[in-house]
Amino acid sequence: MSSSAPVIRRFRQAIAPVFAFTVMVYFIFHSVEGDRGLLAYWSMQDRVGEIVKLRDDIKARRELLEQRVKALRPGSLDPDLLDERARTMLDMANRDDVIIFHHNGYDQP
C-alpha cells in the first residue's frame, strides 16, 4: 500500500458530507433570498397591507359618494344638498348670503 491510501480514503469519506452540506446551504440560501423566499414573502406582506389600506380608503370614499348620490335622487331629495350643488355649479349666491373668503382658499388652517 502506498502512503496516499489513507488520504484518499479520508477524502472519499468526506465527499458525501461536503456534498450534503453544500446542497443544504444552497436550499437554505434560496429559501431566504430567492424569488419565493422569506424576504420576498415579507415584502409582499407589506405590499398587501398597503393595498388593503388603499382599498379601505377607496371603499370609504365610494360609500360617501353613494350617499351623496342617493340624497340627490328624486325620492329622497335633500334641499340643502341641492342648494349647495346648484350654488357651486352656477357660481352664484343670494343677496342675503354672507360669504367669507379665506386668504388661503379652502385649505384648513
Supply the number of helical segments: 3
The count of β-strands is 0
Query: Which overall shape is indicated by the principal axes computed on the Cα atoms?
Result: rod-shaped
Considering DSSP H and I runs of 4 or more, what fraction of the residues is helical? 55-70%
| Rg | 36 Å
- Structural class estimated from helices and strands: mainly alpha
Helix-strand topology string: HHH
Q: Which residue ranges are poorly predicted, with pLDDT under 50 across at least 5 consecutive positions? A: none
Largest sheet: none
Strand content: under 5%
Distance between the termini: 95 Å
- On the 0-100 scale, what is the average pLDDT? 84
Description:
It is rod-shaped, with a radius of gyration of 36 Å. 70% of the residues lie in helices and 0% in strands. The protein has 3 helices and no strands. It has 109 residues and is mainly α. It has helices at 5-33, 38-72, 79-90. It starts with a helix and ends in a 19-residue tail after the last helix.
